[in-house]
Amino acid sequence: QLVESGGGLVQPGGSLRLSCAASGFTFSNYWMDWVRQAPGRGLEWVANIKQDGSEKTYVDSLKGRFTISRDNAKNSVYLQMNSLRAEDTAVYYCARGLSGIIDVWGKGTTVTVSS
Amino acid sequence: DIVMIQSPLSLPVTPGEPASISCRSSQSLLQSDGKNYFHWYLQKPGQSPQLLIYLGSNRASGVPDRFSGSGSGTDFTLKISRVEAEDVGLYYCMQTLHTPVTFGQGTRLEIK
Asked: Tens digit of pLDDT for each residue in B46-84?
């Protein structure tokens, strides 16, 4: 199970840190991904992080503003989002991956960027 | 980035009838290990996406056998042998071979 938290309303230019708590599986065995979905839009992959945190990959359009991290001791993955813009408004999902297969998704947390 | 094109984007289907969705990738998704890093997801209304088919043709755990996936390289198809009311939602294809991971636009299946 994956449970996201940390979403909310933030002003343009502000920051938010999303968290995703994992349970029911060996967290440290899996890559973890963040995927977002703007209102009425399709799915957009954001970033992922390797099991030990040694590799992180981002979609080019978000590099420099978003940072993914994880704490295997806490079975959690995080997404630090800075300099937020209206177009970052979306539901943010965390998901687990292994061997190129993303198989379990959380229910998502909603981020709204508005003044 | 790899572009994934789905068709059709809207799919009205009568219950009990078959349905088919296509997805074409701008580059081959066939890795040297012989696997296609291509997957299908269903997002039911108000829910998060759920994995239906992974690596092109493998049904995920708990997925009814009326769902099947086929294809290789750049062209893939999802087939539903007999559509049921619970199959409504948005169907997405996704590739994980190339970075960044990319999705198709989504196909909305609705019941006639």
From this structure: 999 999 999 999 999 999 999 999 999 999 999 999 999
B101 has a chain A CB within 8 A of its CB:
yes
Examine residue B8 and say whether the peptide bond preceding it is cis (omega within 30 degrees of 0).
yes
From CA B74, how far away is CA A76, in angstroms rounded? 35
Contact B101 A33 (CB under 8 A): yes
CA distance A28 to A51: 5
Whether B11 contacts chain A with CB within 8 A: no
A63: DSSP letter: B
Among B35, B51, B103, select the one facing A43 at the smallest CB separation.
B103
Q: Determine, for residues A45 and B54 on separate chains, whether the beta-carbon distance falls below 8 Å.
A: no
The tens digit of pLDDT for each residue in A30-83 reads 999 999 999 999 999 999 999 999 999 999 988 889 999 999 999 999 999 999
